[in-house]
Specification:
The protein is mostly helical. The chain is built from 8 helices and no strands. The longest helix has 24 residues. The radius of gyration is 20 Å and the shape is globular.
Length: about 170
């Protein structure tokens, strides 16, 4: 009887753990005000951030998307960098993370757009395999972005796409 109870409780615990992992959603870090300010002021903001070498927090060794999001959500920027983010309507403590959410969100929207364009095309088996790999990567990216943030990125996708494709240098 004790063994049966232990097995039932173990299965229940594992089920709850798996369910909670599948329903994980990161906190929302973007607002409409932040996006509008970014679209208007990104050149000045990036210039100011570059002057403070803010990119050192973003660009590191190879890591998974989840590892990047986990690490960058915990970065504590210097007071100067915090002030720069706040000047442009970003959260001083989470500004670097907000930039990464924007970057990956634009990548995800771009991938979705491309997959939608080829959805009705006749594809070779090799192409279909690559498409499945791309979908898996897309799912991984989107799983790291809060759904409300992603909707905002979709709303301003055209402007954000142009911005991130114009950037000639890293922060």
């Amino acid at each position: 009887m004790k063994k049966m109870l232990f097995v039932v409780l173990s299965v229940l615990f594992c089920s709850v753990f798996v369910f909670s992992q599948n329903n994980f959603e990161r906190e929302s870090v973007l607002t409409e005000e932040t996006l509008k300010s970014f679209i208007t002021n990104y050149k000045h903001m990036f210039k100011d951030l570059k002057a403070e070498n803010a990119g050192k927090h973003i660009y590191v060794k190879k890591e998974s998307i989840r590892e990047s999001f986990d690490r960058l959500s915990k970065v504590k920027p210097s007071k100067k960098i915090k002030r720069i983010f706040e000047e442009y309507s970003f959260d001083g403590d989470k500004g670097i993370y907000q930039i990464v959410v924007l970057q990956y969100g634009v990548v995800a929207c771009t991938i979705e757009e491309a997959l939608n364009e080829i959805a009705n095309e006749k594809r070779t088996e090799k192409q279909k395999e690559k498409d499945r790999e791309t979908v898996a990567w897309l799912v991984e990216i989107k799983s790291q972005i809060n759904s409300s943030d992603y909707k905002l990125i979709q709303k301003y996708f055209k402007e954000l796409y142009e911005i991130f494709n114009r950037i000639e240098e890293k922060i």
